[in-house]
Specification:
The structure is a single chain. Helix 1 (26-37) crosses helix 2 (56-67). The protein is of the alpha/beta class and 176 residues long. It has 4 helices and 8 strands.
Length: 176
């Protein structure tokens, strides 16, 4: 991710309700995840939204590294959810891919996320419209990339903290 203090046009922008960052490569997306992990704690719900190939799993892989959890963080598309236990004192990472789940919270209830949430960091790819009812406090991350026949690696990432938990967190600090 570019922390670009040299170029103010690429510094974090505070959109209405969110912080926008520019990420220029998959490696930088992983770096963003590692830095974001330092802000997360047990009970946090992170919703990831973006096109196929936007970098949701790459960001989550960085979160896993930053949280120091066991196991390779890969897309749980076919198993729906994976739990990565901590290697140290931190919380486990529950990584969910809700892409194949059509229903809202009813279908998600089978995963017992409400039970896992208080003790874990829960990351849900494709969770918009499906998991908001789990908690009033959540971090919504929207990753936008150019689509079509392109080799453009640039991603525009908007981080929006919702609820009291995120009201005092400086998400703009992630650009450093």
């Amino acid at each position: 991710m570019e922390a670009v203090p040299h170029n103010p046009a690429e510094a974090p922008q505070h959109a209405a309700g969110g912080t926008e960052l520019i990420v220029r490569s998959p490696e930088r997306m992983g770096d963003l995840g590692r830095r974001l992990a330092q802000l997360l704690r047990a009970g946090d719900l992170v919703m990831l939204t973006g096109e196929l190939g936007a970098g949701k799993t790459t960001l989550t892989r960085g979160l896993g590294a930053g949280l120091d959890v066991r196991g390779a963080v890969t897309s749980p598309t076919f198993v729906i959810a994976r739990v990565h236990p901590p290697l140290g004192d931190g919380p486990p990472l529950v990584h969910v891919d809700a892409y194949r789940l059509g229903g809202g919270l009813d279908e998600m209830e089978d995963l017992d996320l409400d039970v896992s949430l208080p003790d874990s960091v829960v990351v849900v790819e494709w969770g918009e419209g499906k998991v908001e009812e789990l908690t009033d406090d959540r971090l919504h991350i929207l990753i936008h990339r150019a689509v079509g026949d392109t080799t453009d690696e640039v991603r525009h990432v908007t981080l929006t903290g919702i609820g009291e938990r995120w009201s005092t967190v400086d998400l703009g600090a992630l650009s450093v």
